Amino acid sequence: MKLFRSTLSSSYKEIPCGEVRIGHSLNTKEEEFVAKRRETVFQSLQVLKIHCSKDEVPNIALLGSGGGQRAMVGLLGSLDQLKKAGLLDCILNLSGVSGSTWCMASLYQEPDWSTKLDPVIKKIIKRISGPKVSWGDAFAKLKKYYYGKDLFSLTDVWAVMVITTYVKEIDEHKLSEQWDQQSKDLFPIYTVIDKQCKQSKDDKDSWFEVSPHEAGYSLTGAFVGTSSFGSQFDNGSKKKPQDEMDMLYLQEKCYQVLMDLADMNLSVLNGKDPSHFDQSIRTNLKDKMVPAPLPESEMRDYIDAGLLLNSPYFSVLREERHIELIISLDFSEGDPFMTVRDAAEMCKKLKIAFPEINIPSEEVKKPKDFYVFEGQNKTPTVIHIPLFNVVNCGGKFGLFIE
């Protein structure tokens, strides 16, 4: 999805300080939030009889993987159980990709949702169980995108015509506006990846995060204000402003290959020649598999982070966030350990601290309900919780990839 035009190169060295912030430190407003949230975490730990000094309060991040509507509902259920166990207020960050971000976008519509989670969940479930967005409303939104944006693309069409069929609403809230109403909730971090960097296999530059205050490259350290995300920049200064993107657009994910496959099947069913779609699929797959050098480009394209890693590990592995415990909720329908293994492999390549991932061979296809991969020194501990496990599924694992 084409979200951000700038003169950013793969090294980002040419951009002076200005409206583009170059640096690895946290945004000042995020630092202020963390200080307040740690007080909430401290009080919650005391209630749970987990005693520590205020300086020893752990920074805990909760991750939601992709998985479409399954991930959306799964994250809702997980948050509900954390709330009932008194653990939700022990968590600092909530980060997601794909379907988990659909859940996050719905939650953060409600001011201080974590204090009234039960009615908020019921409201969301009622909505996604209800009627779809009408064609009239969808078309009106599409017109609004078309006439209001400099860059109108397939992304806009996909967001309005496809994503709304899952979330059952047209969410026009802005992330920065939503956060102005929040004071007691987990700090949200939405994640995507840079398409050009993914194709060049530059894992460090691929990871892009969108928080209430800033949007930018998690590991490289180049950020713009979230309300400016989508505007044009030149040499670090805003050249041409655009309205801040709404949450419907930020929830979008676009799979050209899947769309071509669907059109190819329809062609066969209608007795038409599907060769055009076959060639398109081959071209897109080739583009994804063959690395190409990253050119100097005015346009950066961002796509679903699940295409590289189906969990937002790298948003919370930023060294300056000092995360000590990562709770990974994996809603994948395939290999239940793929995300944590891939994260470990990428971290090793990028020399980022990550615990060793050792899984008994007999549990690879029949996983337990949770795993603790313990970190040492400054390495975070990871609690990995696969949705499909022996407790939830018994002996039925038909969804797992052999």
Automatic annotation (TrEMBL):
PROSITE patterns: PLA2C (PS51210)
Tagged with keyword Hydrolase: yes
Keywords: Hydrolase, Lipid degradation, Lipid metabolism
Record-annotated PLA2c domain positions: 16-402
InterPro entries: Acyl_Trfase/lysoPLipase (IPR016035), LysoPLipase_cat_dom (IPR002642)
Record GO terms (molecular function): calcium ion binding; calcium-dependent phospholipase A2 activity; calcium-dependent phospholipid binding
GO CC annotation: cytosol; nuclear envelope; nucleoplasm
Pfam families named in the record: PLA2_B (PF01735)
The keyword Lyase appears for this protein: no
Transmembrane spans: none
Domain of life: Eukaryota
Any one biological process term the GO annotation gives: glycerophospholipid catabolic process
Name assigned to this protein: Cytosolic phospholipase A2 gamma-like protein
